[in-house]
Each structure stands twice: as structure tokens, then as C-alpha cells.
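Progress note, project year one: complex with iron/sulfur cluster.
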Amino acid sequence: MKIVGFLHSTFIDYPGKIATEIFTAGCNFSCPTCHSRKIVKSMLQEINEDYVFSYIDSRKEWIDGIVVSGGEPTLQKGLEDFLEKCKKKGISVKLDTNGSNYKVLENLLQKKIVDYVAMDIKGPPSLYSVLTGKKGNAEDVEKGMLVVMQFPDYEFRTTIVPLQEKEETKKEKIKLEKLPTRWPTEEEIEEMARWVIKVTGKNNHKYFLQRFVSREEDEMLDERFCKYKLPKEMWETPYEVVNNVYDIIKKYLPNVATR
Ligand code: SF4
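Model obtained:
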């Protein structure tokens, strides 16, 4: 496990738990809107796994969960061993994932070493290449959804990110040539909601909507999405846009909520 980030305690990242959180290096996606550049590119000092466990041991009276986030944790060779150690300590495990590495997720499901999975749904399948910076991964994500919904608890979540004009996104361009100037359309949001229902065969998933918030240049994976380079109205997803997306999704996925 290459751990490059450690949050001693969080009250908000694992529903109902006081958790410690780790961030693993690297990702198989390259989302231009990602604000974890230093984690994805492994630019931070590595943290020893023993340090994480000794911290958990020293706070075992009140830490009852661990969040394993990234980057994309399922890329880590030592993930299974690490999670087994967590379970032996009696703490609950939450895994954050982009859902594309479905074979690893299947293995973790069989081993029963993850209690809660939070999986990103980046957008409708027609925009997946643009949104993730990688071609042809929506089919893997579909397989990921089917695995994730079998864990004891799970959620799907979408961050509402800025997009280029429709002509640009239609070309499924991996490299952005123009800055984003718009938010997802009603048709794109509906396409995403219908896709989730079609793939999973149900509509009662816990589904969360999150705001995009741009950061400094050295934190964004694609520096054109940093503050100051984006048009100011694209710096953060306006609450009005979030509410619109919520209203559209609610018609399809009734358990949608915002955070
Ligand atoms: S936002 Fe995209 S690139 Fe960043 S960690 Fe998540 S899946 Fe990987």
C-alpha cells in the first residue's frame, strides 16, 4: 500500500462513524476536474502503514471506522492485506472508488472485508471519456456498479463539474482544447440517471450530489481547472445548479440527496 495522505479523524466521510482516513497514491483515471493532483501523481511523502495502525490502536475507544480513499485504492497491491488487518482490529471499513476496477471489487466482496463502498458516477456514459480523461471505461464502470451494490452498504455519488460546450464534448476529446463554460444539461443528467437504473435494475440507491470546488494550480490535475484560469462563474458549482440537478434526478432516483 502506498499511503500518501492521512486524516487522523473525520466525522463526515463515513456516515455514522468517527473514522480515520487514508489516501493512496495513483489513479487509473485522469479527470481534468480532479483536485488531488499530488495524490494521483504520488508527489507526497509516503506514510508507513504501521503508523496508521498504531494511531488507530491509540484511539480505539472512539475511532470505529477507516475510510480508504485515493487516488484509486483498488490499484494498490497490498489493499486486501491492509483491509484484513483493519477488520481484525474490529473497525468498519469504507472504500472510496471510481468503480472501474471491478475485478478487485469482486474479490473484496467475496472476502467480506469492506462494509461500505462509495462509488463515483462521473456523469452519463456518453461523457465518460471526457470526464475521466480516459477512453472507453463506461463499460467497466457498469460492471463496477453491479458489484458495488452487493456490499453490505454503499452509495453512488456524482460531483457536478463544469463542461465544455456540447460540440466539444461530443468529440469525446481526451485533451481539453477549450475551457469549460457550462454545467450539465437536463438531457445529460437524465441520461445519467436512466443509465444507473438500466444497469442496476433498480432506483432506490443512496445517491449523493456534490459540488465541484476548484483549487489552486498545484492541486488540480489539469491546471486549466484551477481557480483564476476558469471563468469565475465556474469556480464552484452554484447551489442553484445543484438544486436543478437534484430536481431532475429525484424523478428517477428518489433517494438522492445533496452534500
Ligand atoms: S477525481 Fe478522477 S483522477 Fe482524481 S482520484 Fe478520482 S477518479 Fe482519480
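Strands lie at 3-10, 19-24, 65-69, 92-97, 116-120, 153-160, 207-211, 256-258.
Residues 27, 29-31, 34, 36, 40, 70-72, 98, 221 surround iron/sulfur cluster (CB under 6 Å).
No further modelling is planned for this target in the current period.
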